[in-house]
Amino acid sequence: MFSVITQQLNVNSAYITQKGSNAMTVISSYNEDEVVIEEGLAVDYGDTFCRLIINNEQAALNAVNLQKDELAKELEATSALGVKGFLGVSLLDSNGEVFGTLCALDKEEKHFDDKDIEFMKSMSEVLSYLIELDQTQYHMGFLNVPIIPITKGVSALPLQGVIDEKRAQIILETVLKVGAEKQMTYFIIDLSGLIILDDHFPTVLTQLVQSLQLMGIEAIITGMTPEIAKHEVGNVSLRNLNVKTVADLESALELIGFQLHTT
């Protein structure tokens, strides 16, 4: 669908944001050529284009050049991204409440007409349904925590997407159950796909590491992105656990004493 949007509007990027209490977070994005918008990007609500969209009577923001737009030119996101052409509309959930925004942008000036705005609004309506469906499937998927066995006594847990309280509880219970039943020695927890929503670092990671340590299972963290590392610096409880962190799975296995061989 993102590809359709970028082709229809002749822009480089299309993305969806989710509105938190203090920030807007990019939960899905598509870049045709140059990577301009990355998933996981979070910006304070007051500094976003999204605020202008949501507060607009038309629930839309259409700018030929954001750098010259009276409302947008002073925003931090405008200078940080260096974009000009922009079209965004509100994205509602099934209850009619604001979920976030659907946006398209380009580093060149773009002229969007009423048909383009109607097109984006129709895409927003479709996405509202898909998001609701995806959330339902996503929550059902919580019952299947993706634990990947590596070798005897060693498993990996890739944490991806946004972790809410319900998902956190299921992850914690499932991992500890598997750790006990399989007599695990090491759990490699990969954070490369984790999305920090509304600037809140998931406390389940601290609880998980601490619980595993109490069970005599060593946790090793991989995939620490710059965004996650920024939050970890301020997370005193996690730092006090003295958990080992390495770049990737291969490094984690080498730390344990294994090596990956390719043929």
From TrEMBL:
<keyword id="KW-0175">Coiled coil</keyword>
<dbReference type="InterPro" id="IPR002645">
    <property type="entry name" value="STAS_dom"/>
</dbReference>
<dbReference type="InterPro" id="IPR036513">
    <property type="entry name" value="STAS_dom_sf"/>
</dbReference>
<dbReference type="Pfam" id="PF01740">
    <property type="entry name" value="STAS"/>
</dbReference>
<dbReference type="Pfam" id="PF01590">
    <property type="entry name" value="GAF"/>
</dbReference>
<feature type="domain" description="STAS">
    <location>
        <begin position="144"/>
        <end position="230"/>
    </location>
</feature>
<feature type="coiled-coil region">
    <location>
        <begin position="54"/>
        <end position="81"/>
    </location>
</feature>
<protein>
    <submittedName>
        <fullName>GAF domain-containing protein</fullName>
    </submittedName>
</protein>
<dbReference type="InterPro" id="IPR029016">
    <property type="entry name" value="GAF-like_dom_sf"/>
</dbReference>
<dbReference type="InterPro" id="IPR003018">
    <property type="entry name" value="GAF"/>
</dbReference>
<dbReference type="InterPro" id="IPR051932">
    <property type="entry name" value="Bact_StressResp_Reg"/>
</dbReference>
